[in-house]
Every structure is written in C-alpha cells, then in structure tokens.
Amino acid sequence: MNLFDYVDSKTQEHLSDLYEFLRIPSISAQSQHKPDIERAAQWVAERLRRVGLDSVEILPTKMHPLVYGESLHAPGKPTILFYGHYDVQPADPLDLWTSPPFEPTLRDGQLFGRGTADDKGQVHIHIRALDALRQVTGKLPINLKVLIEGEEEVGSENLWDFVQANKARLKADALIVSDTSMLARGVPSITYGLRGLNYYQIELTGPAQDVHSGVFGGAIPNPLQVLTELFAKLHDKNFRVAIPGFYDRVATLSRAERKALNALPWKEKEFRKTVGAPGLAGEKGFTIVERLWCRPTLELNGIWGGYIGEGAKTVIPSKAYAKFSTRLVPLQEPKEIARLVERQIRRLLPKTVHCKFQTLSMGKPWVAAYTHPYFQVARDALEKGFKKRAVFIREGGSIPFVTQMHDTFKVPCILLGFGLPDENAHAPDEHIALENYFGGIKAVASFYEGLGNLK
Amino acid sequence: MNLFDYVDSKTQEHLSDLYEFLRIPSISAQSQHKPDIERAAQWVAERLRRVGLDSVEILPTKMHPLVYGESLHAPGKPTILFYGHYDVQPADPLDLWTSPPFEPTLRDGQLFGRGTADDKGQVHIHIRALDALRQVTGKLPINLKVLIEGEEEVGSENLWDFVQANKARLKADALIVSDTSMLARGVPSITYGLRGLNYYQIELTGPAQDVHSGVFGGAIPNPLQVLTELFAKLHDKNFRVAIPGFYDRVATLSRAERKALNALPWKEKEFRKTVGAPGLAGEKGFTIVERLWCRPTLELNGIWGGYIGEGAKTVIPSKAYAKFSTRLVPLQEPKEIARLVERQIRRLLPKTVHCKFQTLSMGKPWVAAYTHPYFQVARDALEKGFKKRAVFIREGGSIPFVTQMHDTFKVPCILLGFGLPDENAHAPDEHIALENYFGGIKAVASFYEGLGNLK
Q: What are the angstrom distances between the C-alpha of A146 and each of A373, A383, A399?
C-alpha cells in the first residue's frame, strides 16, 4: 500500500483521535485551565511515543510544560525540528459558538472546535503523517526532533529559555512549523514572512473611586473619556500609527516582492466576504495584501470600564482599561517599539489621570529568502498532497518562536500552513476544512519522504 | 416630651428599623432582583401603615410597583405630597466595598450600605419623623400624601404614567423630596435646581465576527478603535460638548445667581479630596460649582468590547459598546438633545461600521424660584433640626419626577437633602452620616409641624 492510500484508508481513525485532542480545553491564558494544559501535554507525549519517537519527555517550565521527543535513526539524512503548540485561545464569547468550542462537530466538510486550525489540528496532521510513514515504510526517512509547547497563545516566554539552555539538543538542519494558513481554498502555501507582536495593557485611574455622574460630572476627569481620546490620537487620518519613530526601521518592500505578492491568487471579494464588515479600512498607499502582511499596525484588542451590565448606571468610574497590540514588520525592534509606544502614551495623557502601562509580551517579525532546496521539496510535497499549484506567501500573524529559532540557529524555517484565513482562529466557530486536514497529512508525509530522498 | 427629645430617645429603634430596609437588595436595573423589589415595596407599605397613613396601597406598574398612602385629617392645613424611592443602584464592583453592600455597617459615625444615602436612608428619615409626630402629638399637623417608587434608578418611566392618570388624587400644595445632598457637613441645604438626564447606549459592529488581529489587522475596521475616535470627537479642547445645537437653549445664569452660588461655603479643597484624582477637569470659563450644577455634560458611563479577561488575546472584535449620558440644564429639551446626539454620532461614524443607537431614558432639568413661604418654613426647620445656618443650592444630579411634577401641578417643589457629596451614592462604600440622619428626622418633623402652624 502506498502512503496516500494508507492515509485515505484511515479517515475515521484520524478524526476520532483528533477529537480526543480537541476535547481538552487547554486554554493557556486562564489559570483555571491549568489541569487541562497538563492533560493536553500528556496526550501529546503519548501520541509521540506511539508514532515511534524515543525519549519522549514532558518538561516543566515556570508556566506550562513543553513536550519533546526525537528519532535520530537516519544517518546521513537531514535533521528536522518540528515545532507546534497544544495550547489554545480562550473560547469566549461562548454564546457566539454554533456548537460547543470543546465538542468537535462536523458540518459541511468543516470540523468546528477551538484549536481545530490553531494549532491542534495542524500538530495532529504531523502526528498522523508520522504514523503513516511508520506504518507504510516501517521507519522515518529523516532524523526528527519534535517540540510542542503550551504557551504559544500567551507569548512563548518559557519556550525561549528552554531553547537557549538546550541549543545542542535542538540543533537541526531546518525548522518546520504548521501554524499558519493557506492563501485560499485550493492554494497550498508556504509562508516565508510573519509579523512580530508586542502586546500591552494600560489601566487609567481618574477619581479614587467610582462616583455619581450627576453629582460630579462636568468637573472631574472621566478615565473612559481620557481613554477614548488617547486611542483616537494613536492613528492619523491615513490610518498610520501616530507614534513618533514607529516606522523608522520599517524595511521598504522590493519592487519584485511587491509585484509577486500582489500577483498571488488572492481574492479581495472573498476577503470582504470573510470580514463581513460594511467596509474595509487601512493604511493609505498600500494594497490590502501589503497592509495585512508587510505593514505594522496598532490594534485595540479589548477595552472596559464603568458600568457594563443591564440597564443604566449613572457612574463615572475610577478606572478604564485597554488591551492592545502592535504587529511589527522587518526591521522593527520589539523593545524599541514598546519604549516608543509607552513614551507616546505618557506624553499624550493629561495630568488628570494616573496610568499603569504593561508590556505583556514581545516578539520579533521574520522574513526569509526561499532559495534553500528544502523549500523546493516543500513546494513539491504540497503539490503532490493537494494536487494543486503551491505558492510562497507572507502572513500577518506572529510566531515568535520562528524568529527566535531563525536568529539562533541560522537554518531555514519552513512554514507549511493548512488553515484558511476564514476559519476563525481566535474567534467563535473556529474550524478547519477536512480536505486540508487530510491533504496536509499527505503533504507532510511526502515532505518528510522527499527530504529523505534529497541527494 | 417634646419632638426632639422623643427622636433622641429612639436612636436604637430608628437604626434597627433602617437596617431592615437596607438589607433588601432592591436593585431596579437587574431583573434577578425583582423579588427583592417586591419585598422592599411591601416593607415600605407596612411602615406607612404603622405611622398611621390610610388606604396604603402597593400599585403594580409595567415594571416595579409604586407604594402610595395618605392622611387627610387636617382640614384647612396644607396638603403635602412626599416623594421618594425604595430602589437602589447596582452594587458592583463588589470587591471595592469595605463591608457588604446589603449588610448595613457602622464605622466612625457613618452608616455604610447601598441605599443609605440614595434614597432609602432619606425615605426612612420621613417615616421616622411621621412616627415622632404621631407619638408625641397624637396626629399629623398637615394633610399628607406619600408616593414611594421603585424605578428611580432606571428612569421613573411608569411613575409618570401613574401621575398622569391620577392627577386629582395626587394634587397637593407642595412636593417634598429628600433625595439630594447637603452642600457640606454642617450646612443644611435646600436644593432649588437639578440637571436633567438622558441616558444612551450604542453598539458598533465592524467585522461580522471576532477575527484574529494578526491575520486581519491593518486592513479592516476595528470597532474598538472607531468607538474611541467617536467619543474623542464629542468634546472639544475646552471640554465643551462638541454636538451642534447642544448649547443653543442653555439659559445664561443671572449675575445675582452666579454671585450667590459662588459665595456658598463650598470648599474646593474638600471636593478635590473627595474626588481623589490627580487633577480636575471641566468646561473652560466656568467655576467648579457652575460646572457641576449649571452646565450640561456628556459623560461615558461604561465601555466594553473585545477580550477583557486575564492575559492576552489577539482579537479584533466584531462589536464595541458604550453607555453614556447627557446631563441637561434649563432650558434644554431632552427629546431635542437625544435627536442632536444621535444625529452627530451617525454623522461622525465612518461607513465601515454599523451603529445601533438607543436612548434608554430621558429627563428634563428643573430650577425654581425659592420665594414661596414654604421655602422659608423649610429653611427654619433645617436650622432648628441641625442648629446651623441653612442655604439654598442647586445640584448636578437628576430627579425626573421633580420636573414632571413641577410642570404638571405648578406647585413649589422643596428638596430637603440629607446626604453629603462624598457619601458615594452610586459607588462602592455608599454611606450616610448618622448626625445628618438624626438631624434629618428632627428637621422633617419640624418642617411638617411648621407647615401646620402657617397662617
């Protein structure tokens, strides 16, 4: 039996095993889910053992454990480090899910559930590809190191300490990650650029306690109002981030790259449909693809303060809060950007409020030349697995680990993404297309096989 | 025994009865407290019966019941309508209360608990004053109608329908309300002006569902950002409300009134201490007292949207929300202001978001000349009860009923307030000073007695 026939013959087994994984609510941001995080780590370790990896370990960190395993029995063949994450985003707002977030549900060829696309489904593609290679050929065609973490959705801080302390152990000829999306349905894609991410939170304090808006209104600073005025000043009328120095290090796109990116089979109509807003917005002077992949942003991710319950409460609150983030592009420096953001916010705020500013996480942007032969093997494998032409793309999201690994080991990072942009990663009704999940298993198996055949 | 000696002799009885009332969490804005609202109405009705009112009734409305009772056995004497409310504001944020909001607690001469100042404590002052008159003199010196409602904190809508349908029954020579504050500790006060209140809520929708801020950020409308830009445009740099037409009908203060208000024993230092903010704010060209009592405002009361939990979530939400209100002054018209506010908001919003605009409630401002003899009786009664000079003041809060009654019956409205501005009405740790609670009982008893003695 060849690899693809084997994969096709195990459809039910792939899915029932994936369902088990998806049912564990391993939300890394919420401390009450710590036991689920532990269960998910154990589940991954058990699966790595089953597909034949040696010395599989669950490695505790200051927060959530890492899972590591390896198979080094292919002398002379490439050594590949595969990275993924078993943690997921919070599931709220729960009332907007059509089926429960942790009860995987099939509808119209899509599998719905938190983590289906980001990233449990994609990690599982690799587990099943390794299983197929083992069942069909009896061995792995390459040397493989697998590192699956539990803090990707909260900034991957402890992962990095681990890598620094284990450079020799993790050394490989390439890094493979499946945590991104394809350009569109039917367009298998290799991502060669990611934005970086800094995440911030501020707390503004006006009056020392909540006060009556009738008795005090008109003469005291309202922190909610101050918050709105602050964020209104952080963009200019062309949707550029209005923070001095923010764009100073942003690399200009080459004419060739700009042309290549804008020639991709990317459909604005589909994008508009996915967004579903009355209109689009964004930085003047750039196409939508450029705005999404190659331009930095500052976005509010959450705001709150005052009375947010049913009905009316005539209060001026003591405090107002915002969570927000900057997406960074080459060659912006996260630490410098965090400094510029905080400086400008403190400069803009009136003296009538106190401000507590926190940088919750920082991550660098990344972009790679895709000239290494492994990229060609990856492209061929995608085209075999999906029976479609594959393309090279960038992405607007962030995987700090990729940047860090690239900076540390100076090896190719190959991002084989099997999600789709409209699959609601980080939102209610997250899902993955079954055709991409199954195509992904075939492509990844082909990719490892192809790397083993490289002369 | 004279009236004041009687009041002094019943200190424990006053308080233990008040505690019972305060322990009922009669929050009108939250539907889960409906049974508590019913209990509070029954409690009030029972007390009105005990002090000798006839035909006490609990009158159902579309939302929360009214309590009504009367005593009309003083022919030739004035007929007074006393109005108060038994409902209270929501108690959240609960974690900021030093003692539980519905467990009355004495500390340093202050009684803490939701409703102590606004308005259960002040309603109770009248109940105890009536009790004292009855116990000491055997009868009421005037004709009295008492109307206590349960929707003051949510806009008093059904109260007004009741008044319209019962004009003959409610007819009186004056309206007495105790739901305001004294100017300061030791300064008994009669309020002759109130601001009106319109309360609004908006819901902005950008993308059709929450989306990943990396995958979509930079090219789509973020409703949180749009919300901040909207509210930043609703004030100008002089803290004036930037809504065309908003100030068109605002009456100019007379030189005499301006002088009188600014000569009151009002202490800015105390005010700053109460607020506890790093600085004050407000409309240029007006003193703090004028800003608080005589100038209209637009204040955010609550904002929310996106991820507001622990840690980070890289989301651009579909929706952003704000609750906000305008305080109105003579001669602004609530309906016109609501129209102007909605028109300006729709004008300012970009076409990239949908907006749902709601006016949750509307209420007119009120101001009275205090030349009627009843005002002098009130002043004398306050000076007797408190042994201090009494003053005439305005207030920044809103009691829609006062305006409506004044417009309908064209009779004097006399606002005898026994709260203090720093007693956290509508905020955690609401309280009332015991000296004002006891002084209030004496003043109200004196007032009713004085009205009975008027020739």
A: 21, 24, 16
Chain B residues in contact with A361 (beta carbon < 8 A): 312
Which of B153, B179, B228 has the highest number of chain A CBs within 10 A, making it the mutation to test binding with A?
B228
Residue A179, CB-side half-sphere exposure with 13 Å CA sphere: 28
Q: CATH classification of A196-250+293-361, choosing from 1.10.1740.10, 3.40.220.10, 3.30.70.360, 3.40.47.10?
A: 3.30.70.360
> Domain B196-250+296-361 - what CATH class?
alpha beta
Token pair belonging to B299: 């204040």
Minimal CA separation from A93 to chain B, in Å: 9
pLDDT, tens digit, 9 for 90 and up, residues A14-49: 999 999 999 999 999 999 999 999 999 999 999 999
* A134-187: pLDDT as tens digits: 999 999 999 999 999 999 998 788 998 999 999 999 999 999 999 999 999 999
Amino acid at A95: D
- Token couple for A39: 């269960």
Q: Which of B212, B302, B421 sits opposite A305 (nearest CB)?
A: B302
Domain ranges across chain B = 3-194+365-453, 196-250+296-361
DSSP-assigned letter for residue B385: H
- Please state the three-class secondary structure of B113-175 as a single string: CCCCCCCHHHHHHHHHHHHHHHHHHCCCCCEEEEEEECCHHHCCHHHHHHHHHCHHHHCCCEE
Cα gap A23→A9, rounded to integer Å = 24
Which of A228, A284, A398 is the best residue to mutate to test the B interface, defined by the most B CB atoms within 10 Å of its own CB? A228
Q: Rounded to whole angstroms, how far apart are CA atoms A150 and A156?
A: 8
Please, what is the average pLDDT of chain A? 95
Taking only the tens place, the pLDDT of each residue in A339-388 is 999 999 999 999 999 999 999 999 999 998 888 999 999 999 999 999 99
CA distances from A314 to A453, B28, B31, B42, B186 (A): 71, 13, 18, 27, 27
Instruction: Give me the amino acid identity at B207.
Output: P
Complex ipTM value: 0.84
Entry pTM: 0.84
Residues 6 or more apart from B336 whose CB is under 8 A from it? B245, B249
Cα gap A332→A42, rounded to integer Å: 38
Fold of A3-194+365-453: Aminopeptidase (3.40.630)
**Amino acid identity at A359:** T
Cα A301 off chain centre by: 15
Q: Is the peptide bond before B331 cis (omega within 30 degrees of 0)?
A: yes
Are A325 and B213 in contact (CB < 8 Å)? Answer: yes
Q: Residue B277 and residue A313: Cβ atoms within 8 Å? A: no
Which residues in chain B land under pLDDT 50?
none
Distance of CA A369 to the CA centre of its chain: 21
Determine, for residues B90 and A314 on separate chains, whether the beta-carbon distance falls below 8 Å: no
At residue A404, the pLDDT reads: 84
Q: What is the C-alpha separation between A417 and B411, in angstroms, rounded?
A: 76
| B182 class by beta-carbon count within 10 Å (0-12 exposed, 13-18 middle, 19+ buried) | buried
CB atoms under 10 Å from CB of B109, counted, come to 9
* 3-state SS, residue B108: coil
Please determine whether the domains at B3-194+365-453 and B196-250+296-361 fall in the same fold group of CATH: no
Reading phi first (left if > 0) and then psi (alpha if -120 to 50, else beta), residue A138 is in left
Instruction: Give B 144-173 residues with CB within 8 A of chain A.
Output: 153-155
Quick one: three-class SS letters along A217-243?
Answer: CCCCCCHHHHHHHHHHCCECCCCCECC
Cβ of B272: how many Cβ atoms within 10 Å? 14
List the beta bridge partners of residue A361.
Answer: A199
Please tell me which residue, B72 or A399, carries the higher pLDDT value.
Answer: B72
Residue of A165, A173, A204 whose CA lies nearest to A68: A165
